[in-house]
Design goal:
Helices cover 38% and strands 13% of the residues. The chain has helices spanning 34-53, 57-61, 67-77, 88-98, 108-121, 130-141, 161-168; strands spanning 11-16, 19-26, 176-179, 184-187, 199-201, 204-206.
């Protein structure tokens, strides 16, 4: 599970941003005591497995575990039901290449389900495992190319909503703004308003938004 921070596990031992001291680090939702956090994480894993066994997608979505962590667990314990693909970007890429339209609000679970159903409907794939299907997707379709988008904005610059729209290609409203063209997600942390509380821990911003 490389490619993301150790905080995806909820609890780890090591450094945190600019703080180079090695100690137990806990994601805020699991409290501030390592032993208690470990018990909460273990309980969340048990609840996730029970939900998966009962095909309870609502409870899976409500899991306190990070998306990449819960997806790995589901793919490990239920390899015939869940793909070991944790990136919504990659899933969306595969669906578009195959020519399958899904709702713009479809999440990782829904996109996985649509891809799995497509595989089952194809001639000659009756004996395929999901691991075989994953290999097929990456070897025959590939993966999305990273777009080198480098906006010319200096650190500390003052930008208006119109500036954000022009430079990044996003809308001029909302705290989370997506640009399909530039393949980016712009997050606006506005400390002049008290709708949500964002916090910095070292060089990591914990951003809070609706949903």
């Amino acid at each position: 599970m490389h490619g993301s921070y150790a905080s995806k596990f909820g609890l780890y031992y090591g450094k945190w941003g600019e703080d180079k001291k090695k100690e137990y680090r806990i994601v805020q939702k699991f409290g501030d005591d390592p032993d208690a956090a470990m018990e909460k994480i273990k309980q969340a894993i048990i609840e996730l497995l029970i939900a998966a066994n009962n095909a309870d997608e609502e409870s899976i979505r409500d899991s306190r575990l990070s998306q990449i962590f819960r997806s790995k667990i589901l793919g490990t314990y239920y390899p015939d039901q869940y793909l070991n693909i944790y990136s919504e970007e990659h899933l969306d890429f595969f669906l578009k290449k195959i020519g399958i339209a899904v709702d713009s609000e479809a999440d990782l679970l829904e996109m996985q389900k649509v891809l799995i159903n497509w595989m089952k409907e194809q001639p000659g794939t009756e004996s395929w495992t999901l691991l075989t299907f994953e290999k097929f997707l990456y070897e025959q379709i590939g993966q999305p190319k990273k777009i080198a988008f480098k906006p010319e904005v200096e650190m500390g610059a003052t930008l208006s909503n119109n500036d954000l729209h022009e430079i990044f290609g996003v809308g001029n409203m909302g705290g989370v703004r997506r640009s399909q063209k530039n393949n980016l997600l712009l997050i606006v942390s506005d400390h002049t308003k008290s709708f949500y509380e964002d916090k910095w821990y070292g060089d990591v911003l914990y951003y809070t938004g609706m949903g």
